[in-house]
Amino acid sequence: MKDLLSRLPKVGRLLESAEWAGIQARCSREQVKAALEAELDLARQAIMAGVRQAPGEEELLLRVEARLGRLLQAGPRRVLNATGVIIHTNLGRSPLAQEAATAAAEAAGYCDLEMDMDSGERGSRHVHVEELLCRLTGAEAAMAVNNNAAGVMLALGGVAKGREGIIARGQLVEIGGSFRVPEVMEESGIRLVEVGTTNKTYLEDYKGAISPETGVILRVHPSNFRVVGFQQEVPLAELVALGREHNLPVLDDLGSGTIVDLRAWGVDEPTVQESVAAGADLICFSGDKMLGGPQCGIIVGGKQWISRLKKHPLARALRCDKINLAALAATLALYIQPEGWRSIPVLAMLTEELTAVEARAKSLATALSGLPAKIELVSDVSPVGGGALPLHRLETRAVRVQPEKISAQALAQILRQGKIPLVARVHEEAVILDVRTLRGEEISLAAQALAAALGGETNEQ
Ligand SMILES: *Cc1c(COP(=O)(O)O)cnc(C)c1O
Asked: Would you place residue 461 in the very low, low, confident or very high pLDDT band (cuts 50, 70, 90)?
C-alpha cells in the first residue's frame, strides 16, 4: 500500500507539465491545484481502503477537467422538457416569450430602471409595469415583488400586522416548498383566526369571528387541490361586502392568476379581473405560473393600499430587479396586443390543438425511426403542473421509445446528462417523449439528443 501511495504523482510537478497547461489556461492555477488535491485525496482513500490502484496522470487530468468543467458551466442550464408538464416547477416553471427574453437581455446593461427620462430625475421602478397591470386587470394600482409568496407576506404585513386575520379552514393551503398559509400569516405578524370547516364555510362564520382585533379577511385560491362533493365557500363579493361593512380590507391570494379567460379551452381558473370586479382590496398572484412571465409576485388593488405597500420597509427587501421587471413588462405588453397572449408559451401550449401536437409527435417519431429502439406514437394525458389546475387533464401525443440495448431508466439518465439535457418520463420499460412541451427547433434537438444517447443517426427531413 505504501508503495502505491508513493506512486501518486506530485502536485507541483504535474502543474508544471505541458499536459496541464490547457486546463490552467481555462481555470486559475489555484483552482486547478485545489481540484487536483481533492482528486489525489480521493485516490489515497481508495488505495487505503484497498479498492483502487493509483490513478495515472492522464486519468487525474480527466478527473480534474470534469470537476472544473462542472463549475465553468454552473448555473441553471437550458433543458429540453419532454415531460409534457407545462408549468414544471423543477424545470423553471414558465418559459418566457421571446419578447420577454429579449427585453431582459437588453435591460441587463444600464437601463432606465429608476430614472424619469423627461425630467432626468429619480423615478420609480414600479412605473414600468403599473399602468399595464391596471389596464389589464381593471385595478387602480399595482406593483411587483420577487414572487407571490413575497407578495402575500408584504400585503398581509402591510395591512394588518399585529392584528387578526380571518380565513376559512378549507383555505389553509400548503403550496409546496414550505409555503403554508398558516405559517406565512404568522410570519407576517398576523394572528390566525380560522373559521368554518374543511369543506364548508358560511358568511355567518366570518361575521361571528370579526372583533376589534380583526385586521384583514383573507381568501386563498386552492391552486393545487379541489374539494368536491359536499362543499361550500363564500363568494369573494360577499366577503368584500362584509369587509366594507366593518372597514376591513379583503386580500385575495389567487396563486396562479390568469388574465385570459381560458374556460373556452376547458381551463377552469378564475381571472384576476373577476377578483378586481368583486372588489377585493388587494389581489396577489404569481408572474410565472399561468401568467407566463418571469418569477415575480404581482399585487394589484386599491390605490391607498398599494401606496402603503410601496412605502413599507419590506418592499425594499422584496423588490424585483431590472431583468425581472423588463421581462414582466414585455410579457404584459403581449396581453394588450390582439391575440398577443398566444405568443406566451404557457398559454400557447395550454390551448394548442391536438392535431398540431400530433403533427410534431409524428415528425419526432420519423426522425427517430432509424435508431436502435422501438419507436411508437402514443396517446397520453399530461398534468398542467406548477401547482395549478389539479383536475385538468390535457390530452396529448407522445413518442414512446423502448431502447434495444439498455434499460429505459438508463436511457432517461443518459438523456438528462446530455449536452442539452432532455428530461422525460419513464413508463413501462420505455421513455415517453411528450411533445406538447417541445416546440420549434426543440423537436430536432430532442431527436439529436436521442441519437447521441442511443448511438445512431437521426432521420430528419
Ligand atoms: C403558488 C402559490 C403561492 C406562491 O407563489 P410563488 O410565486 O411560488 O411564490 C402562493 N399562494 C398560492 C395560492 C399559490 O398557488
From this structure: low
Residue 117 is placed in which grid cell? 427620462
H, E, C per residue of 365-413: HHHHCCCCEEEEEEEEEECCECCCCCCCCEEEEEEEEEECCCCHHHHHH
- Read off the C-alpha cell for 169: 379552514
Distance CA 152, CA 219 (A): 11
Supply the DSSP string of 28-69, one letter for each residue: -HHHHHHHHHHHHHHHHHHHHTTS-PPPPHHHHHHHHHHHHH
* Closest CA relative to residue 437, chosen from 328, 364, 333, 330: 364
Which of 88, 221, 253, 258 is the pocket-test mutation for ligand 1 (most atoms within 8 Å of CB)? 253
316 C-beta neighbours (distance < 10 Å), count: 9
Which residues form ligand 1's pocket by a CB distance below 6 Å?
Answer: 147-149, 152, 173, 175, 179, 220-221, 223, 253, 255-256, 286, 297, 387
Q: Where are the beta strands (DSSP E) in 140-293?
A: 141-145, 164-168, 174-176, 179-180, 191-195, 214-220, 250-255, 282-286
Question: Three-state DSSP class for 142?
Answer: strand
pLDDT tens string 429-438: 999 999 999 9
The C-alpha cell that represents 140 in the structure block: 387602480
Cα(147) to centroid(ligand 1), Å: 8
Indicate the pLDDT class of residue 6, thresholds 50, 70 and 90: confident
Give the integer Cα–Cα distance in Å for 174 and 305. Answer: 26
Q: What is the pLDDT of residues 221-263, one digit of tens each?
A: 988 888 888 889 999 999 999 999 999 999 999 999 899 999 9
- Is-contact 187 243, C-beta < 8 A? no
Map grid coordinates 429579449 to a residue.
102
Question: Which of the given ranges, 2-6, 261-265, 390-394, has the highest pLDDT on average?
Answer: 261-265
CA dist 221 and 232 (Å) reads 13
Decide: pTM greater than 0.90: yes
